[in-house]
Amino acid sequence: MRVLVTGGTGFVGSHVARALLADDHEVVILDREETHPTPGAELIRADVRDGDAVRTALRGVDAVSHQAAKVGLGLDIADIASYVSDNDLGTAVLLRELALAGFGGRVVLASSMVVYGEGRYRCADHGLVRPGPRAAGDLDAGRFEPPCPLCAALLSPEPVPEDAPLDPRSVYAATKLQQEHLCAAFSRETAVAVTALRYHNVYGPGLPRDTPYAGVSALFLDALLGGESPRVFEDGRQRRDFVHVRDVARANLLALTAGEPVLGALNVCSGRPRTVGDMASALAGAVGVDALQPIVTGQYRLGDVRHVFAAPDRAARKLGFTAREDFDAGMAELAEKSMNKR
Questions:
Q1: d(Cα 38, Cα 230) in Å, to the nearest integer?
Q2: CB 3.0-4.6 Å disulfide test: which of 45, 61, 133, 286 passes with 335?
Q3: Contact 116, 160 (CB under 8 A)
């Protein structure tokens, strides 16, 4: 099978490309960067918003893994136009060219857990509830847990299934949800199968540490390798699902090659939530600087959510996907490779 991987020189995209090559598929990469060149893959250095380049890249292609995107929350609202252009216009151009080419294969979209906004919460008295955005006054006072919107009681967070209400709370999140909507409309009109893989917090070799869009693991590592304690926002007890990039690549491979394509969204996660403080401590231990234990700052960002971690059941049932990578081993590998680069 010949597969186009947009954004295939980036962090996740390069791992997807290597997983496809290891499974004896031909790979064409379309990317404006050359961050992670992949031996054995054909590289077209161009922007996914360039229709002519996309048209060239699609020749002879049987499937598409659409990884190209601007990632992260962004620095401020001034980033809004670049996020919409890179993520939504780029996706629209790709889908247009697929339609014009009469493409009949399948498409896998890199989506994100950020489309959920806050996670899933249960009140002891009112059952499942949807807390609104946290108020700045509560956060300033160190009240980080979202209260029940009906009685203000403390809530119990639960794993988020794919059919949970969607509530993007940042520009990036809004663009990822729009990508899903565009792909769903394209699928309905063309009968091309599209699977949206909602990645949770991805980490692993090649994780970028030198951009403002890096994830918390990259920022913690940067501090530790610079001889500083990692600074953890809020109280460090916010829960996430940290999933290894090799597991993410394998989920893409399964979605592209499964006997029957899976329509709609799938969580790509480890199924084992951990706190952000847990990650900071694991990295400090892996780097071997126990003296540099995390500093809990109480700082916050209004765009952040408190708890969001995934239900892995649908991906296991539909794709046979379950995460394999061990968290502690993954943290040690990430730390070792980062230290070797210095």
A1: 32
A2: 286
A3: yes
CA dist 188 → 76, 174, 182, 191, 342 (Å): 35, 21, 10, 6, 49
- Work out the angle between the directed axes of helices 327-341 and 276-287 (0-180°, nearest 10): 50
pLDDT at position 303 is 67
Integer Cα distance of 333 and 342 in angstroms: 15
| Separation of alpha carbons 271 and 42, rounded Å | 34
Amino acid residing at 177: L
Q: How far apart are CA 131 and CA 145, in angstroms?
A: 10
* Residue 195 to residue 286: CA distance in whole angstroms: 35
HSE of 170 in the Cβ direction (CA atoms, 13 Å)?
A: 23
Closest C-alpha among 237, 242, 208, 231 to residue 331? 242
Two structure tokens written together for 259? 């006997």
Backbone angles phi, psi at 70, to 5 degrees: -85, 130
3-class secondary structure, 242? strand
Q: Is 232 helix (H, G, I), strand (E, B) or coil?
A: strand
Among candidate residues 18, 17, 89, 12, the one with its CA nearest the CA of residue 54: 89
How many whole angstroms separate alpha carbon 43 and alpha carbon 20? 15
Q: Which DSSP string corresponds to 10-78? A: SHHHHHHHHHHHHTT-EEEEEES--SS--TTSEEEE--TT-HHHHHHHTTT-SEEEE-----SS-SSGG
Pairing of strands 193-199, 106-112: parallel
The 10 Å Cβ neighbour count of residue 299 is 10
Yes or no: say if 314 and 164 are a contact pair by the CB < 8 Å rule: no
pLDDT of residue 341: 66
301 torsion bin: left (phi>0), alpha (psi -120 to 50), beta (else): beta
Other C-beta atoms closer than 10 Å to the C-beta of 204 total 23
Kindly report, residue by residue over 74-104, the tens digit of the pLDDT.
557 888 999 999 999 999 999 999 999 999 9
